[in-house]
Structure formats: structure tokens, C-alpha cells
């Protein structure tokens, strides 16, 4: 297509909302002129499903739960007044608690004012808060954020080492809806031990964000933690960033959570519009459907041209892939749906995988995120007539053009700046687009049976490990090969798992298992000293 023709298509297809400070350009998506009209009946069905969800329908039938993350930034829409008041009172409590911490009224008994916050969580209890913290944080942070977002001992050691003597001024947020999530529980126990080693009272530094009556809620109450904030069963982890999960760490960091909620609220209102060309989330969902043929035929590459948005693709991986990646549709039919997401940042990606995007396998569509404001204040000229930010914009435009010239489709989201308002709007935009797309492909966006299956499988492995340790302890000094161990446990079909467990046990001093290496790795023999 000639550039002048493309310009006319740009003007015809551009969605722009000055109040929202956001625009969406779909002109580089090569859907046919009649595509939007052809999809209109299905899209209107998706809008109706979304309307029922917002009214309190059981949108997650597997778990018999409502799905109410939209109420978090518009409590008046909750289906009953008690829920509305609970949402409002929670946000008020977050503001009050953060204000008391900042003022030093809530402080460490061992080190004065808190100036750091360690967030312990996983999945939606970490990815959303991490994205918000990285996109909006900086030298002005009231509390500097750190994260335990995995059950990797070395990773936790690195965080504790980085905090160092500052542990005395560190507040700890433990975030888990059930309180039984193993990774988060492990992180809490590791944090508790680190405080104990430093001679500090963990409970005097700890705050829980959890379901009322959960295991974590009971622990926090019994041990006298500083505070407890609620998580609700009608808010899924991947859509929880505008609940206490994301708002509490953001408020403690010093981020304006009222502006973040305002941005999400305005975007919600903008994406309830039934007119397709006036609804950016509907346009996103339809472009995804076009690009992937409604069945995940292509991946989504997120290319934000801003360092502050580096973690956006990681946040979207969970939001989109956990919501859309389903084996069965709502009718129980096997569909194997999905939409893979990956990304880096511009212009770093110019020196990484843009080569493949332009010239390699065409198995993707790109989403560029352009940020108009370079920085606070002016910039120096790095050469006559050009600043560093001008170069960033030039690289974005050049990459976008180069991809399109070689037949690679892309979307562009343009925002005025990276601010709490904008970040809230981006979160809400993608939450709505995911919900609409899920309806278009007829899957349940609000459950995660594959995640639960993985958790159960991990539990089975740990039970088998316990049996292995019991066997070795009962015959101290005797060395077992993995096949011999499997036969002794009457679990010959689990020999590969037993081999993997034994190899891991011997690599660490925790259980007293040692190995004598065999000529082949699977011929090694394992024992507990007698």
C-alpha cells in the first residue's frame, strides 16, 4: 500500500481519546474493509456477556464465583451496597495505613521509620505490583520496593543481601488469597528466618493481604501482625492489581493510587461503549481475532518504547495467557485456545529480535506502545537538532515501518506520558480486551484449571520425595540407584521422577543425601550416612 493510501487508512481507523490521553492505531492490521461489520454480531454478544458479568452474574461457573475487578474502581457498580462499602473502606484503609507509615506513626520498633517494603507473592500477587512499581517508581519513592516472587532460595538470598542492614527499616507485605499458596508461604517463612537471624521481630514488620478467615489471616491475627487487608474471591489474581494487592504496595511506595484508579475507571467507561469504532478494547480484541484467526495462530509481541514499561509484557503474559489458554470452550468442546505473549522494549529490541520479526518466520503480530513525553523538563541535543528522545521516537517509527513494509502487521497504542493515570488506563484496557476476546472465542477467561493441575502434580512429586527420604533414612549407609529405589518403593513407573528428585537432594546439604557418581548419570547411587 502506498504511503498516502496508508495515511488515509490511518485517519479512517484511528481511535483517539483526549480525556484518556490515549490513541489506538489499527491501520497496520490488514483486515478487510468488511471485517468489523462481519464480526459485529459476535462482538455485541461479547458486550452483553460483559454487561452481565459487571452486574454480578456467575461469570466463573467452575468455581461459582462472580468476577468483579471492575467494581474496584467503580464501587457503585457492585451488585449490593455491602460490597460497595467494603471496597470503599478498604481503599480508605490503604490510604490511612500508608499515610501513617509515611508519617512515622507506624514504624519499626528496631529502626525508626520504614523506608523499604518487601512484597511476598507470586503470579498476580507479584506481577501487577511489580509492573506498577517499576513503571511509576524512582528516586522519590517513600518506601523502596523489593520482591520475593518465586520459591527460589538463591533469589530470596539475593534480595535479602541487597536490603542488608536495612532490614530494620523494612515492612513486609505477604499477599495470598488462600494463605496456602506454597511459593508465598515459603517466601514468608524465608523472610521470617531472615528477620530472626537479624534479631528482629518479624510480626512487628508484617502485613497480610489475604482472604478473611484464610490460613494467612489466622496467622497474622494470632501473631499480632501490623495490619490485615482483604482479598475477595470475586477478584482473580491476574486482575487484582487495582485491589489491595496492587494498591497497598503502590501507596506505600508513594504512588498516587487515586489517579491510578481514576485512569482505570475512565478506561472502563470508555470500553463499555457498544459502538465498535469508539471502543479501544473492542478494537484490540477484534484485531487479535483477525491476526490469530481466532485460534492463536500467531503470537503477540509487545514493544513498548519506554524503559518504564519494560515489565508490561510480563504482566500481560499472565493476564492474557492464563485467561485465554484453555483446552475446552464454554460448551466443553476441545479447542486448545491460546494467545502467546512476549516482549522486550524499544530500542533494545532493535539490537535483539527485531531481525527475526522483520525477516524471519511471520508467526506474530506486534503491538507498539509509544509514549509522547520523553522526560520531565527539556533534553540536551545529542547532535544538532536531535535529542535522545527524538532518536527513540525515530527508532519506533522506523521499526514499525520496516515491519509493515515486509508484510508484518502491528498495532500502536500511543499515550501522552507514563503516569499513575495512564498505567491505570492501560491495565483496564487490556483487562477489558481479554474479556471481550475470550467471549469471541467462547472460552472462560476467569478460571485456570491448568495452573491447578500443575500445583497438584508438584504436590505428588513432594510426596514421592518424602517416601524416598524415608526409605534412605530407614537403611542408612546403603546406597540406592534410582531404578533400585523405584523398585523398593514399588513405584517403577516413577523412575524418572525418582532420579530427578535424588539428583536434586544430593546437590544440596539440607537432607543429608550424598551421591557416588556412576559412569552414566543415571547410574549414580544415593545414600544417607549411617
Commentary on this structure:
This protein is of the alpha/beta class. The chain contains 17 helices and 16 strands. The protein has helices at 3-13, 35-54, 81-103, 127-136, 153-163, 182-197, 215-223, 244-253, 257-270, 280-292, 312-324, 354-359, 388-405, 420-440, 449-474, 482-488, 495-506; strands at residues 15-17, 22-25, 116-120, 144-148, 170-176, 206-211, 227-231, 299-304, 341-343, 364-371, 381-383, 386-387, 410-415, 480-481, 513-516, 525-528. A 6-stranded mixed sheet has the order 1-2-13-10-8-9, with helices on both faces. A hairpin with a 2-residue loop joins strand 11 and strand 12. Helix 3 (81-103) runs parallel beside helix 8, helix 4 packs antiparallel against helix 11 (312-324) and helix 11 (312-324) runs parallel beside helix 14 (420-440). The longest helix has 26 residues, at 449-474. It is globular and about 80 Å long.
Span from first to last CA?
A: 78 Å
Task: Count every beta strand, where a strand is a DSSP E run of 2 or more residues.
Answer: 16
Category from helices, strands and their pairing:
alpha/beta
Rg (C-alpha, Å):
26 Å
Instruction: Give a short account of the largest sheet.
Output: 6 strands, mixed
Oligomer state equals single chain
Strand line-up of the largest beta sheet = 1-2-13-10-8-9
Percentage of residues in DSSP E strands: 5-15%
Q: Shape from CA axes?
A: globular
